[in-house]
Amino acid sequence: MALPTTREAFKEYCLRELGKPVIDINVDNTQVEDRIDDALQYYRDYHYDGTLRTYVKQSLTATDITNEYISLDDDIVGIVNMFDIGDSVSSNNLFNMRYQLSLHDVWGMRAGGNMTNYYMAQQHISLMEEILVGKAPLRFNRNMNRVHVDMDWGKVVAGNYMIFEAYQTVDPDTYGDIWKDRWLLRYAAQLIKKQWGSNLSKFNGMTLPGGLTFNGAEIYQQAVEEITRLEEEMISSYSLPVYDLMG
Q: Do 80 and 127 share a domain, yes or no?
């Protein structure tokens, strides 16, 4: 059978991995759904394919300016950077320093110059902006879905745009290939198995017709060991290097 591309097919794949329909998996459907949500949350937090590095364009409203923060969508999990807001050094007009130096250097290159002077001039301007203007500090918490920009909000007006470099979760309902991920399939199956073992452990020692007994504790322990191994595999093989991230 083909790998799943929908949530329902993913769920059935995991249950078959555990033995369905040959074995009765003693887990309620709502419990299965919860464990799939847990697996997706872990996948988004640690797997490099669980989030997308993107740019978020936000049009400012009068409320944003009054609040001095911007509300973002729930699928934004981290803010990396914000594009600089124009000023006397870097604003986009005919009279700022960057435009005039760039114009001079470009025409100089056309006259037989090279890229070295142009590159060094741009680096010098960036250093001047860093020293004289500085970066506006950002504060973001994914549970609040707000990005606070510590700047003079009086220099912006409603209708202006702010552009953030951010990380956005990838929606599996839109991009169904997520459901095919081998690590996610194994991890979700083991979370369901752990739930199965937890359910059966309530009946440990009970004897069934034919002399069979429940052994939920063993199923639970097997799942815990495999979950630990999969999480170690995630950190060592599928996680991005640690870096500064707000959120």
A: yes
Read off the pLDDT of residues 141-176 as tens digits, 9 standing for 90 and up.
989 999 999 988 988 899 999 999 999 999 999 999
pTM: 0.77
Distance, CA of 70 to CA of 60 (rounded, Å): 8
Looking at the chain, how many residues does it have?
A: 247
Q: What is the pLDDT of residues 26-49, one digit of tens each?
A: 999 999 999 999 999 999 999 999
133 and 150 co-located in one domain: yes
